[in-house]
Amino acid sequence: MTSESAFIDELRAFATHPAARGLTDDAAVLAFAGRTLVLTHDAIVENVHFLPSDPPEDIGWKLAAANLSDLAAKGAKPTAALMAYSLSGDAGWDAQFAAGLGEILSKYGCPLIGGDTVRVPEGSARHFGMTAIGEAEFVPGRDGASPGDELWVSGTLGDAGLGLAIARGEIEGPEVLLQAYRRPTPQLELGQKLAPLVSAMMDVSDGLLIDAKRMAEASNVAIAIESIDVPLSKAFVSIRGDTREASLEAATAGDDYQLLFAAPPRSRRQIETVAEDLKARIHCVGLVEEGGGLVLQEGGSPLPLPEKLGWEH
Amino acid sequence: MTSESAFIDELRAFATHPAARGLTDDAAVLAFAGRTLVLTHDAIVENVHFLPSDPPEDIGWKLAAANLSDLAAKGAKPTAALMAYSLSGDAGWDAQFAAGLGEILSKYGCPLIGGDTVRVPEGSARHFGMTAIGEAEFVPGRDGASPGDELWVSGTLGDAGLGLAIARGEIEGPEVLLQAYRRPTPQLELGQKLAPLVSAMMDVSDGLLIDAKRMAEASNVAIAIESIDVPLSKAFVSIRGDTREASLEAATAGDDYQLLFAAPPRSRRQIETVAEDLKARIHCVGLVEEGGGLVLQEGGSPLPLPEKLGWEH
């Protein structure tokens, strides 16, 4: 057991309110005044979740994007956000961060209503947090996947992973990949429209394989993923090709903030219509089966799982 | 202008939703489904807001106490909380933190419903945040004080300041002062009962003088404080005496988490009855007047303001 899971177990001992969902979901779901609030908090830390060299506007964007993506995964429409900000000691840097934050919150109609600014001791990593609050009618858990469901993912995978490699100077590549890493798009409209049609939904922030495994564990089912079905962008393929290795890299890369969802085959047509209406790319990547755990396969034959299924913060 | 106030000005440019209250109040106040939510986020950082040597249970307690105190200041009853936690790398430390947090949340009926745990780079300060959400009927701002109001404070002041000096090994003193610093009591019941009776309310977390100055500025009034009216505990007096110097020390010390409120003289009897019913100590420390700014006086004659009015984080 990691120290993180041990700690979360200790919190679970008293986080017994139904809104907490056992601290196993992307967000809390609170019944209030006959309506349903979805609440999430994501923190990002320098040298853990972003690079010191990332433009501050993009870090501001990403803080909100990570939180709005959790709302998207629960089918919620943003209501408001609060921010925790550690002053960087550089007013220009802070102002650029605020600009990027304002841009994304305005784009997705999420007002900033409060928060806290703190100093941190010299030498401490920059550290930002956001609580995003939304409202939803149908709130899919990550625990509702049923045998027979199809497993879908939105967009393409691996782009942000390559964008990070570009940002680190490890490879060269097109701007679109760098943007995928620095300015991820929370799938809010898609999530809201899909929520009533799916049996389980979450965002893919740490990698398809690790997040699908989490969905399988929460739902007490097995999930089988076809490696050749991992959706890749042209930009990704232009750098890595479309080999099995490339697919596995894309399926274990983090920061894509796409939606991963399971739905019964009878919902397929409606799901495809939703995606067409929004001009959103979605892709069926696997099946939910009886049993437990994650299975990776190629043309139906099992492949060994890679040692690292994704990104563990 | 400090870099913090410059940054908050930049946020204000887009934090224009009425729930944000111009980012000038202790908490956001969000109308939702015909009811009123109060939302606050406070972060605490090692070596800024707490000492590395403070017991982890007490740090967990204090994180929640600081947030619940903001709810108290807005007359709100706690609904739920989300926590941002930086893993310390020491599972025993984390477990003790969780124990203290669970203790206070259970005492004040505030369920933990979500949050995030993150790693921080080696050498970074521990960094914790909490979003607390409550519900209120009457929500006093800090901007409602009117000329003619009396200014009140709950409890005694300066105890936590001496507790911090004890924790730092600078002085010796009784346990009760150390506890005032390490386990502050959010004045939730008092805040809820006072809310409909007051014209302005906030918590005193940074020092009576600095917080009263903030209330005066937000309300566009002058506030005059009688130095001899600063309420002191027996424990405080046993160490510092009850000189003018001691009063000024108490009036500029932080971390007391008492309530500061302004109310018209016609509310005095009801206010005193509320305090008696709750066995809470309250003390009239000054008057709200026409004009602007903070005035300190002794027996009605003006005293020079100390250079440092309180604690600026």
In brief, what are we looking at here?
Two copies of one chain form a homodimer. The longest helix of chain A is centred in the first third of the chain and has 18 residues, at 56-73. Chain A is α+β, with helices and mostly antiparallel strands and 313 residues long.
Topology summary:
The structure is a homodimer of 313-residue chains.
Chain A (H helix, E strand, L loop, with lengths): L2 H10 L15 E5 L2 E11 L10 H18 L3 E10 L4 H17 L4 E7 L8 E9 L14 E5 L4 H9 L7 H8 L5 H7 L5 E5 L3 H12 L2 E5 L7 H7 L3 H8 L6 E6 L4 H10 L4 E8 L3 E6 L2 E3 L10
Helix pairs in contact in A: 2-3, 2-6, 4-5
Using a beta-carbon cutoff below 8 angstroms, give the protein chain pair with the largest interface and the number of residues from each chain: A-B, 72 and 73 residues
Q: Number of helical segments of chain A?
A: 10
Q: Tell me the CATH architecture of the largest domain in chain A.
A: Alpha-Beta Complex
Taking pLDDT < 50 over at least 5 consecutive residues as the criterion, the unreliable ranges of chain A are: none
| Radius of gyration computed on alpha carbons of chain A | 19 Å
Work out the number of β strands of chain A: 12
* Secondary-structure element string of chain A: HEEHEHEEEHHHEHEHHEHEEE
What profile does the largest beta sheet of chain A have? 7 strands, mixed
CATH class of the largest domain in chain A: Alpha Beta
Percent strand of chain A equals 25-35%
Alpha-beta content class of chain A: alpha+beta
Q: Could you give the order of strands across the largest sheet of chain A?
A: 7-9-6-10-8-11-12
By CATH, the topology of the largest domain in chain A is: Phosphoribosyl-aminoimidazole Synthetase, Chain A, domain 2
CATH-assigned homologous superfamily of the largest domain in chain A:
PurM-like C-terminal domain
Average pLDDT across residues of chain A? 96
Give the overall silhouette of chain A: globular
Helix content of chain A: 25-40%
How many structural domains of chain A?
A: 2
Task: Determine the N-to-C terminus distance of chain A.
Answer: 14 Å
Quaternary state, please?
A: homodimer
